[in-house]
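Predict the 3D structure for this chain.
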Amino acid sequence: MSAAPGRGTPGAWAELLRAPAALTVLGDTAAGAAAAGRPLRGRRLALPLASVALYWSGMALNDWADRAVDAAERPERPIPSGRIAPGAALTAAAALSGAGLALAALAGGSDALRIAVPLAGAVWAYNTVLKPTPAAPAAMAACRALDVLLGAGAGRWTAARTPALALGAHTFGVTALSRGEVHGGRRADSRLALATTLAATTLTCAGRAPSGLHRAAAGLCALGYAGTTGRAQLAADAEPSTAAAVRAATVAGIHGMVPLQAALCARRGSLAAAALVLSALAPARRLSTRRSPT
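Done. Predicted structure below.
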């Protein structure tokens, strides 16, 4: 039996939420937790799930806010195609935000909520107000940085400043570049993305590692991050007006979050967390061939 018009099939919801891209979010709180020396154990294991819920709320809100633009530029998306009603998408965004906050409270009480509430607010502000403005890359970077700090908690957020800055810098560049996904981009944006990739790599490799093994593991992950992300951004820089090249670089940047998160975990003493985070990369890439992460 097919779904009622506007209510959406599971496939339509997976497309709306960019479901596979959630695998690139799980490592944010892991990186923050490793930096703060607060492993994700017991109830704190709900923190990555809180990140996913808030990420999915942002995806639903993004398509709700962009429904008029998508009707002209991407009519195949779930809302303009009529597979999901705008009201259903907005309701889902609100419900997922609530779920994210509830999971954060379960994981860390008020200590986690002091980060999760501003994070949820930043997600809504970006998608409903700031996305069409010049402040969009900074707003999205703030969302990602706050997600990293969620893993550390309000009481230890300063210990996670460097990982938050690294992932924030990366996100800033990817967001700036992604504006050319449909009509082609500008060389200024591709070069900004390359600069932020270099900055994120530098921040990741800065500071003292617990041992040579941790330093080597972090270096390998950082090299993988810089190589794959930077190569795609260089290709976009060579053809800045080609939307396909910009889109490919954006996808590479989204997937690049994973080795960057793994490098940050390893550099700050958690090889186990780094390995778990890195294990998400292959399925994220494989699933993105079925559902676009952008």
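The radius of gyration is 18 Å.
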